[in-house]
């Protein structure tokens, strides 16, 4: 028996930060009772990560993490709209963070071997959009009404907007963060020039 | 290995304790670095704004290579550089380097693993290698070959949490010079009460180290190594909610139009997961 569409949509809403109290209650109930619901959430995360970075995150079992988050969240009948948002945030953080904290716990593991050249990855080209390529059947955050259906027009708009905002805010970010970077020159060396392709 | 339930408890505690007090529970634990590591990390952190030099840096990512001449380093609060591949006889660019609160190596040890080894010769100088590996997938990793004489990183490779290289900086020439008088520009901290938007939570280890309202409301968040700026402005009614991202080397720009009529842009050297979580934590004051 497949996962209910309403649960899928509610999960997308939580993932997108668009969940209302009904969405939240539905997700909490599903992840408590249905392993398939937990697996579906994990697939949403993987799909999102692939769309964003071209890389799939490491597979992790998040079932305990989800349940623990639920146990720690305030019960539904005690929270109002603002509280619901806080719970939604906590579940989202736990779902995303919980598995990740299981990784890299062994300090003895060697760091990835560093080859002599930079490895090109999807989306790592200079100011190249890596989202909105229209992968079918994956989660989209661009359309609240049909969250599992990508909306290339909106996604492409936001890709362009992100590019414009990189040019708009990148220099200020470099100034503010230069003292944090491993080498202060690095932050400013990264800042693009005025011409396309810089 | 930690059990998942324990990890989540720590994460949740860190997330909400950070939002409430600015200091996460994990950061109060004892130092996880050895004394030599602590000393080296502290020296590298201090060198970012205390050592002056001139040199030429090779910047490389995704097949793009660029040489940048550093005519004056940022120790005096100012950086003068020229992008040598952008124009013939490129003009010097003067950039600011803002002062930052002191960073503590022990706090970094809660979120990164450090290891030291002998490094490659870089720009004709002897180095030691400082490998910095994130303990979670919310921040990037670094491999640095650090100048033994000045503790300035001369070669910095940035890696994804999974270990894939995304950016490389390397000095082709490096010459320390006497520290140039001056002081780094002070970070501007705008009172949260004067801002329309706020952050309901922060990822573990990250703190607000700067905030402002120009050109739009923004915060600078950092865990001591990773940094991201969060810019928030009202979203126009005609713009539908959505998200987009562009990546240039280690710098990611993520823009999200939220249902709460906010347009959030995160610019920083963090994985997209981190940027997305921060964007989702933006609230208007009316929501809180």
Helix and strand string of chain A, N-terminal first? HHHHHEHH
Q: What gap, in angstroms, lies between the N and C termini of chain B?
A: 37 Å
On the 0 to 100 scale, the average pLDDT of chain B is: 81
What's the overall geometry of chain B? globular
N-to-C SSE string of chain B, H for helix and E for strand: HHEEEEHEEEEEEEEEEEEHE
Strand order of the largest sheet of chain B: 4-3-2-1-9-8-7-6-5
Total number of strands of chain A: 1
Radius of gyration of chain B: 20 Å
Mean pLDDT metric of chain A = 56
Helix content of chain A: 40-55%
Helix content of chain B: 10-25%
**Shape category of chain A:** elongated
Unreliable residue stretches of chain A: 56-64, 73-150
Number of helices of chain B: 4
The main sheet of chain A comes to: none
Most strands sheet of chain B? 9 strands, antiparallel
Range of strand content of chain B: 35-45%
Number of strands of chain B: 17
Measured by DSSP, the beta-strand proportion of chain A falls in under 5%
Largest interface: A-B, 101 and 125 residues
Structure description:
- Chain A is about 55% helix and about 0% strand.
- Chain A has helices spanning about 5-15, 20-35, 35-55, 65-70, 80-100, 150-175, 185-190; one strand at about 130.
- In chain A, helix 4 (about 65-70) packs antiparallel against helix 5.
- The longest helix of chain A is centred in the C-terminal third of the chain and has 26 residues, at about 150-175.
- The termini of chain A are far apart.
- Residues about 55-65 and about 75-150 of chain A have low confidence and may be disordered.
- Chain B has about 290 residues and is an alpha+beta fold.
- Chain B has helices spanning about 5-20, 35-50, 105-110, 270-280; strands spanning about 50-60, 65-70, 80-85, 95, 110-120, 125-135, 140-145, 155-160, 165-175, 195-200, 205-210, 215-220, 225-235, 240-250, 250-255, 260-270, 280-285.
- The longest helix of chain B is centred in the first third of the chain and has 18 residues, at about 5-20.
- Mean pLDDT of chain B is about 80; it is low at about 1-30.
- Strand 1 (about 130) of chain A pairs antiparallel with strand 14 of chain B.
């Amino acid at each position: 028996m497949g996962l209910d569409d309403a649960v899928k949509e509610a999960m997308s809403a939580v993932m997108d930060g668009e969940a209302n109290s009904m969405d939240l209650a539905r997700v909490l109930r599903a992840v408590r009772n249905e392993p398939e619901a937990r697996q579906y959430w994990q697939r949403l995360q993987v799909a999102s990560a692939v769309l964003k970075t071209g890389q799939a995150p490491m597979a992790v079992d998040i079932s305990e993490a989800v349940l623990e988050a639920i146990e720690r969240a305030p019960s539904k009948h005690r929270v109002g709209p603002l509280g619901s948002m806080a719970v939604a945030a906590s579940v989202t953080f736990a779902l995303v963070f919980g598995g990740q904290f299981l990784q890299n716990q062994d300090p003895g593991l060697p760091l990835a071997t560093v080859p002599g050249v930079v490895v090109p990855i999807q989306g790592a080209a200079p100011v190249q959009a890596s989202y909105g390529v229209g992968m079918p059947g994956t989660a989209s955050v661009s359309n609240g009404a049909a969250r599992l259906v990508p909306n290339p027009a909106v996604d492409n708009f936001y890709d362009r907007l992100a590019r414009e905002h990189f040019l708009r805010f990148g220099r200020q970010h470099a100034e503010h963060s230069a003292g944090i970077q491993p080498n202060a020159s690095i932050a400013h060396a990264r800042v693009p020039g005025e011409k396309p392709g810089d | 290995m930690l059990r998942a339930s324990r990890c989540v408890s720590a994460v949740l505690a860190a997330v909400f304790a950070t939002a409430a007090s600015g200091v996460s529970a994990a950061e109060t634990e004892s130092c996880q670095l050895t004394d030599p590591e602590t000393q080296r990390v502290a020296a590298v952190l201090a060198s970012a704004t205390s050592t002056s030099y001139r040199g030429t840096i090779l910047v490389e990512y995704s097949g793009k290579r660029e040489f940048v001449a550093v005519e004056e380093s940022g120790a005096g609060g100012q950086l003068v550089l020229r992008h040598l591949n952008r124009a013939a006889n490129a003009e010097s660019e003067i950039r600011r380097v803002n002062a930052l609160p002191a960073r503590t190596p022990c706090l970094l040890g809660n979120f990164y693993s450090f290891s030291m080894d002998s490094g490659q010769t870089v720009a004709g100088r002897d180095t030691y290698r400082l490998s910095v590996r994130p303990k979670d997938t919310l921040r990037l990793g670094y491999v640095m070959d650090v100048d033994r004489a000045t503790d300035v990183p001369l070669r910095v490779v940035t890696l994804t949490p999974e270990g894939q290289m995304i950016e490389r900086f390397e000095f082709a020439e490096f010459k320390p010079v006497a520290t140039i008088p001056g002081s780094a520009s002070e970070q501007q901290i705008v009172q949260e009460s004067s801002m329309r938007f706020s952050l309901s939570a922060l990822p573990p280890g990250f703190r607000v180290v700067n905030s402002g309202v120009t050109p739009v409301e923004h915060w600078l968040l950092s865990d001591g190594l990773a940094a991201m700026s969060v810019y928030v402005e009202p979203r126009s009614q005609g713009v539908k909610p959505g998200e987009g991202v562009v990546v240039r080397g280690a710098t990611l720009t993520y823009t999200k139009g939220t249902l709460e009529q906010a347009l959030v842009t995160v610019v920083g050297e963090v994985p997209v997961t981190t940027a997305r979580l921060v964007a989702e934590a933006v609230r208007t004051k009316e929501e809180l």
